[in-house]
Write a structure and sequence with these properties.
By secondary structure, the protein is an all-alpha fold. It folds into 2 domains: about 5-95, no CATH class; about 130-235, no CATH class. Helices cover about 65% and strands about 0% of the residues. The longest helix is centred in the first third of the chain and has 23 residues, at about 5-30. Bound molecules: zinc ion.
């Protein structure tokens, strides 16, 4: 860790800031196919085309004093927060030597949670990204049977609910997510994880007293998964 130079930290931080900017734009434009997979390009207030010097992560915001150069209106703090947030998160991960494990996992988990809470769905591309991360960071072959059992059980629940109530009780996105996590953990951890995330969701429904509304489950699953991963990384329990 000592040999990691300042240049490496700055580069990693800068990449984090660009990623933060990109992910925020993806989140803001979710469901709007025209603006997907692009960086921010126009002013939020007047719609004027932004130039490259307005789009340097963190610096542009600070140099412009948090205001747009075209119409001099206040820029949302979300830009600075997401860029500094991911830049510092990446640098902390570099320091602890887990940039490719935790560093590449948590932004995806956060995005899944935010999109699921807002739109009640998990984007397939994020589910596939997570599956890829799991394939690269664990011994998937070990837990194939656990994952198959979890998948069959959840599909059984899904079809039963659909048959009885004529509506989805559980999203297919949640099922894919749980099958992926089963590949990572296997039994009995996946059982604990499903129990804890279900309890958290139930608790949220009881506290908010919104019994009839649709609630996101994926956000609670990734929250629990993220917590498990952190414990495993720093205290070295099962996995
Ligand atoms: Zn403007």
């Amino acid at each position: 860790m000592l040999e990691t130079s300042l240049i490496t930290y700055l580069t990693v931080g800068f990449l984090g800031a660009i990623l933060g900017s990109f992910l925020l734009h993806e989140y803001d434009n979710y469901g709007n196919a025209k603006n997907r997979l692009k960086l921010r390009s126009v002013c939020d207030h007047c719609g004027k085309q932004l130039s490259a010097k307005n789009l340097i992560p963190i610096f542009s915001f600070l140099v412009q004093g948090g205001r747009s150069t075209c119409c001099n209106k206040k820029l949302s703090n979300k830009y600075l927060i997401s860029e500094i947030g991911l830049a510092s998160f990446f640098m902390v991960c570099l320091y602890f030597d887990n940039l490719t494990s935790i560093g590449l996992l948590f932004p995806a988990l956060l995005l899944i949670a935010l999109i699921d809470e807002k739109f009640k769905e998990i984007p397939l591309v994020l589910n596939l990204y997570l599956l890829l991360w799991i394939a690269l960071n664990s011994n998937v072959g070990e837990n194939l049977i656990s994952a198959a059992l979890v998948g069959l059980f959840l599909l059984f629940l899904y079809w039963s609910y659909l048959f009885i109530k004529k509506t989805e009780g559980l999203g297919l996105g949640d099922i894919i997510l749980l099958i992926s996590i089963s590949l990572y953990y296997g039994f009995p951890e996946i059982f604990y994880l499903i129990t804890i995330s279900s309890c958290l969701l139930l608790l949220k429904i009881i506290i908010s007293q919104k019994y009839k509304e649709q609630h996101a489950f994926g956000s609670w699953i990734v929250l629990t998964f993220g917590t498990f991963i952190l414990f495993q990384e720093f205290y070295g329990f099962a996995g």
